[in-house]
Amino acid sequence: MGVFIIAEAGVNHNGDINLAKKLVDMAKECGADAVKFQTFKAEESTGLFAEKAKYQKENDKTEESQLEMIKKLELPFENFKEIKEYCDEKKIIFLSTPDGKESLNYLVKLNVEFIKVGSSEITNIGFLKAIGDTGKPIILSTGMSTLGEVEKAISTIYSTGNKNVRLMHCTSDYPTKVEDVNLKSMITLKNAFKVPVGLSDHTLGFESAIAATTLGAEFIEKHITLDKKMKGPDHKASMEFSEFKNYITHIRNTEKLLGDGIKKPTEKEKIIMKDARRSILASRNLKKGTIIKEDMFTFKRPGYGIKPELSYILVGRKLKRDLLKDEVIMWEDV
Q: SUPFAM superfamilies, from UniProt (predicted)?
């Protein structure tokens, strides 16, 4: 199986289930393997006096608190049951990130395949234990964290007996500048914890996905939107339909470029080989019965005759027929 591609719909439905379903359609049509949302109750994750994050202020100019903003992006829990059923119908995997124990328990009841844990929870030890206790496979994002914090988070999950953890390298900046991606950290995570790794990509282009695929990312997550001009904190750093479709094409083409690692000629190369490689040719006109010496042959194209490396076998053999200069010597000729 190739890179597992997650279309991060997040809160780009703007609190509208019909927009959420359109994001599912978009993810499926673009070729994503899964579409991910965020299941939460605003009061469960955000305090009354919490200010919006810097990127949220830049992407959404309204003068409101983070709680007020998030409240508008909230979908009722029962909507996610309907969205999951819609995903099942469309044959795309439904995923969602819980923001608290209530949303976590609801997603477990929906029988999600993975629990995707956001970067903001990396130090939320009690919540990580609850996630581990579900027994579900876990994808843990590691934005804003140190290696030591990741180690503590993994140890917390492992302490529940749940060892089915994948790590997602992430830079929690929207959009992320290329110089801040630090993709080698993904390899550091893989080597340090011996788990599958991937990338949560918040850059604006395709380069991070190509590089991550080349470095062995097993899954890549990317924000999608129906329209970057829509109001909301994440739309501007997300990809619209044609952009995301191209994004996936870049990943799949990179996988094809990487191949299986076995060094061998392709079927087309085997055909080209006959014209491009050299064979053993007569260096002058030779008569039937001639005992072949080294000065009687040369190495030229085409390549369908005896390989030059086997020339030593020809020396001392007798010709069965006349040969013209530059004629290819075949085994049946000696």
A: AFP III-like domain, Aldolase
